[in-house]
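User: My collaborator sent over this chain with a note saying "see what the structure looks like." That's all I know about it. Can you take a look?
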Amino acid sequence: MEIDLSFFAQRVAMLALLAGFVGGLLFVLVHGAVVALAERLRSRANTAERVAQARIRQQSIMRAMPRG
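Assistant: Without extra context I'll predict from the sequence alone. Here is the result:
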């Protein structure tokens, strides 16, 4: 049984090309998911910071207002 080296090389090249496309696609998908997650976490942190600042302002206003 003789091995056809050109056919073998062609199949290896096709598999390498397919693996490159699949790897590129996975990279794009994972990168997009990480960017979306980072944006969501940043948005949540900004919201929490604004709420904390609003509470501090509210407390300072309540201390400044005379009672009675």
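A starting point for your reply to your collaborator: The first helix runs from residue 5 to 64.
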